[in-house]
Amino acid sequence: MNASRALTISNLSTSGTLTVNVRKLAYPFGVFYSGGYLIQPGSSMNVSITFSPGQIGTVSQNLIITSNDPAHPAVSVQVVGIGGAL
User: Fold this and answer.
1) Domains plus CATH for the chain?
2) pTM (predicted TM-score)
3) Which of 18, 41, 78, 85 is deepest in the core (most CB within 10 A)?
4) What integer pLDDT is reported at residue 75 of this predicted model?
5) What is the C-alpha to C-alpha distance for residues 36 and 19, in angstroms, rounded to an integer?
6) In the chain, helix, strand, coil percent, each to 5?
7) pLDDT reported for residue 1
8) Which of 25, 12, 23 lies closest to 79 in space, CA to CA?
9) 3-state secondary structure 60-83
10) CA distances in angstroms from 66 to 15, 50, 57, 75, listed in the order given
11) What's the rounded Cα separation, in Å, for the pair 83 and 86?
């Protein structure tokens, strides 16, 4: 069974545009954007992460998000999916 989850990336700045790059994940995960790579101050970008397991078991990867934020230029988010029997 396929599953998807939303991840929101927000720009908490009041003055600067956030430039974001989200690294693609390998199978059985997928990453889809509903927004752009530039996030205006006070705005956010939605990222949909899908999981389409091809076998039983646990799979994990790190989703790497880089940006022009000097305090947090790279953020790693662990993505975990568990494939089960149909």
Assistant:
1) 3-83 (2.60.40.10)
2) 0.84
3) 18
4) 95
5) 9
6) 0, 60, 40
7) 73
8) 25
9) EEEEEEEECCCCCCEEEEEEEEEE
10) 19, 20, 29, 6
11) 9
Q: pLDDT tens digits, residue range 34-78?
A: 667 899 999 999 999 999 998 899 999 999 999 999 999 999 999
* Average pLDDT of span 8-16: 93
Distance of CA 55 to the CA centre of its chain: 23
CA neighbours within 13 Å on the CB side: how many for 34? 8
Q: Please give the C-alpha separations between residue 35 and each of 8, 24, 74, in angstroms, as whole numbers.
A: 10, 15, 19
Report, as an integer, the average pLDDT of 76-85: 91
Handedness of CA 62, 64, 69, 71 (dihedral sign): positive
The amino acid that residue 77 corresponds to is: V
Interatomic CA distance for residues 72 and 46, integer angstroms: 19
Mean pLDDT of 4-16: 93
